[in-house]
Amino acid sequence: MSRSQPSKAKTFILSAAIVGLALAGAAGSSSLRATPGSSDPSGGDLIHLSFAGKGTSMAWDVGVLRAAYEALPALREGRALVSGSSSGAVLATALGCRGFSEDSLAHIEENFRKFDRTIVTETPAKNAMVLLGLPTEADHSSLDHLLDVILDGDKCRPNFPMLIPAGNYELLNIRSNKPLLGIKDRTFNVADFTVTKDGQNLGKVCTYFVDKKMMGILKAVPRKELLCDLRLIETNKDMRMALLASVSEPSYFEPFVDPAPEKIIRSGDASLPRLTKRSYWGGASVDVPVQDIKRALPQIYTMSTGRAPFLQMVDKLMSQMSLVELTPLADRAKWFLDLEATMTAEMGNYLNQPQFDFPEQITKGYETAKACLESDACQPDITIQPEAHTIPANHPSGLSGDLAPYTRRGLRGLN
User: Fold this and answer.
1) What is the pLDDT of residues 366-394, one digit of tens each?
2) Among candidates 107, 88, 113, 221, which has minimal Cα distance to 163?
3) What single DSSP character describes residue 11?
4) Assign residue 257 a region: left if phi > 0, alpha if psi is -120 to 50, beta otherwise?
5) Who's near 35: CB < 8 A, 6+ residues apart?
6) What are the tens digits of pLDDT across the range 215-261?
7) Distance CA 147, CA 230 (A)
8) pTM of whole model > 0.85?
9) Whose CA is closest to 81, among 94, 92, 70?
10) Is residue 39 exposed (0-12), middle (13-18) or buried (19+ Cβ within 10 Å)?
11) CB 404 within 8 Å of CB 299
């Protein structure tokens, strides 16, 4: 297995999520599709569309969404689940509220095409502060109005199966005040996403924000085997919390504090105490949140909107702030995909240049995804088999064994 080396550091610009919140929120709600009504516990007639975080390249996802909607009857018929991490949570939340419809897509496209992305830039001064271990996070007040737009004030509710991941700040944060040096006093277990210190299990490194339908789907996976804790979203305020939790990436926004941590359902060790505090630190630690959904619905078809590889500079910067390494986790998640709208390192660098606006990103995303869907041959070429790659015991579908036959299939088998 080989990994191509990126030619230029891809910036990690989650500030774009701020504007994306407003733009995606322009989607109308008048054409909400029915939620999946599949009676097949294997999920073989469903599509899982996962929006990977990609910062200021997020308009790429709008083009991918359009191409997928045109090509896949399952999306047009509402036989779908959505997930989204970091800036990808913007579109996932919009669709989780409004569902898939021509009206929704048209509104999203129209508003993204009007946006001048050149106002969202990275500065050398900020990068220098990050390298020196200095805080650069902004508070969340600047997001209030924009969240009102995407969530239609207080009207938007979760209506479509959705999953939004966020990292748990208290376990992830290893930042010190010394340049390029994090505090390594805990151990992250990549097999089950637990964190230990001095032999004591501290819990999971992440939380899934899920609606009731997704909560029911994930019951097919024993709670002790889920990668992340669970937090039910039922109200407009819950959706606001999930979005803030996933976009609050290190160096961009302050950690978002859960107002009701007692509602968190802890996964893994059943003896862990109930939480009295939890804060969230962005979704990058679960950039493509597909593993547990795939284990819950073994035959579901899974498509990612893609993202350029994490570059060595990004991994290095994150390693001084966060306990987890991003690239190995992303490569494990990609093992479960059937199709990915491939964004190469070169394309990511190209789209990150300030002179290339959102309309061009939409066009590039659409063209790439359309070609991938027509050829049915865009599977990730860099993957690592995850430690948990089997169907859970006593699955309601009656299926058992390895998940490998149900990955990297393309989407032509989806009716």
Assistant:
1) 999 999 999 999 988 878 999 999 999 99
2) 88
3) P
4) beta
5) 78, 99, 159, 160, 161, 213
6) 999 999 999 999 999 999 999 999 999 999 998 888 778 899 999 99
7) 23
8) yes
9) 92
10) exposed
11) no
What is the Cα–Cα distance from 40 to 32, expressed in whole angstroms? 23
C-alpha span between 255 and 278 (Å, rounded): 10
150-183 b/e (C-beta count within 10 Å ≥ 16 → b): bbbeeebbbbbbbbbbbbbbbbbbbbeeeeeebe
Structure-token pair, residue 89: 């949570």
Tokens 């004591």 label which residue? Answer: 200
What one-character-per-residue DSSP string does 157-186 give? Answer: ---S-EEEEEEBHHHHB-B-SSTT-B---S
Looking at the DSSP bridge assignments, the partners of residue 48 are 81, 302
Per-residue exposure over 307-317, b if at least 16 CB sit within 10 Å of its own CB, e if not: bbbbbebbeeb
Distance from C-alpha of 295 to C-alpha of 214, rounded to nearest angstrom? 13
Which residue in 1, 9, 13 sits closest to 249, CA to CA? 13
CA distances from 391 to 42, 147, 313 (A): 10, 38, 36
The region, left, alpha or beta by phi > 0 then psi within -120 to 50, assigned to residue 102 is alpha
CA–CA distance, 372 with 412 (Å, rounded to integer):
11
Instruction: Return the half-sphere exposure (C-beta side, CA atoms, 13 A cut-off) of residue 289.
Output: 35
Let me know if 375 is exposed, middle or buried by CB neighbors in 10 A (0-12, 13-18, 19+): exposed
Cβ atoms of 205 and 324 within 8 Å: the answer is: yes
State the first-to-last Cα distance of the chain, in angstroms, to the nearest integer.
Answer: 32
Q: Which amino acid is at 389?
A: H
Q: What six digits make up the tokens of 362? A: 């939409």
